Automatic annotation (TrEMBL):
This is alanine transaminase. Residues 34-394 form the Aminotransferase class I/classII large domain. SUPFAM superfamilies: PLP-dependent transferases. InterPro entries: Ala_Aminotransferase, Aminotransferase_I/II_large, PyrdxlP-dep_Trfase, PyrdxlP-dep_Trfase_major, PyrdxlP-dep_Trfase_small. Belongs to the class-I pyridoxal-phosphate-dependent aminotransferase family. Its cofactor is pyridoxal 5'-phosphate. Keywords: Aminotransferase, Pyridoxal phosphate, Transferase. Its EC number is 2.6.1.2.
Amino acid sequence: MKTIQKSAKLANVCYDIRGPIMDAARQMEEEGHKIIRLNIGNLAVFGFDAPEEIQQDMIRNLPNSAGYSDSKGIFAARKAVMHETQKQGVKGVTLDDIYLGNGASELIVMATNALLDDGDELLLPSPDYPLWTAAVSLSGGTPVHYMCDESNGWMPDLDDIRRKITPATKGIVVINPNNPTGALYSDELLQAIVAIAREHGLVIFADEVYDKVLYDGVKHTALGSLSEDVLTLTFNSLSKSYRSCGYRAGWMIVSGDKKPARDYIEGLNMLSNMRLCANVPGQWAIQTALGGYQSINDLVCEGGRLRRQRDLAYELITAIPGVSCVKPTAALYMFPRLDPAMYPVEDDQQLFLELLQETRVMLVQGSGFNYPDNQHFRIVFLPHEDDLREAIGRVAKFFEGWRKRHAPVHASIAPAMGNTASLAVP
């Protein structure tokens, strides 16, 4: 029988947040094991309910939701997004510049498909939210990763960005606040990125899904507010700030100088029309969400649940010998590092598969976020405090056993590598 193979377009597409480790966890759950998931930002699973007024608006408008909407979305929702851009200082945005989608994810794929030809390059952060890398590959483009500097609070390395620009570079992706590191970028850094894009004629893709999930009094600046000439596509959604992942309600805003981009915008319109429209019930939630009480502020302020859980997860994970972490100032994640002198990891996916099997705790390895070492992993700090204590306690015990199993081998080779300062293993 002739085998049926997947498209060659998928050869370089990878999304390890829902990859082999999740498949193993699902199998374990089917066998009756309870898994503590620290792998994905699905807020509703951890008791973060969508605001009731959003739910009520969707319910009341269900009778009006059976038909297709305008391909770009319903008027009231796009109007609310337009008003939001005005509050953020993004100038020149009209209703025609706003596209609603089935979450930001659909719009990211749409935006890359409309821009990239085979061999075109798009600059992406490393580590990144892996959907971006997958979308570029699926579009026929080449993802080129610029480094974010852990020693500088995970800020993008501007010199590395400049080095990686070629004649094939079409644009640059900026994820701010950042997933997976929880970093928030300064206005000075954002202005420098805008200047680079302006100099080289690049489109900016601004992923700002976590723009309201901010801690310690920090402020977010919309990248689109920093220029009126650089074409900027901004992505956001209800999924995180409004705890409505399953509603699949997102939006994309086109700002900056649109005249040179008429053909690209025609492509966006074509793809928007082809999918007919985003799901209509979710669209009805947008106006109420953006214009109503911002309950996310209660969760991120001092004493708020997300703030408490961030602080606890940071305290517990950095208490593990050989584990360090830049404390996140935004989003729902942190990206800890394993000291290679104590954790000589060759295959980080295998390491965290072993951790899952032994502890029933699910994490995602750093290579799943297109980071080029085997020493990092992402933690989602959404579970309740008792569950975080239990989960990270199991992780700590696993790492203690792993160090004991692997330290003798490491100790025997470390002197030859000239690394004698970190031989002591607790």
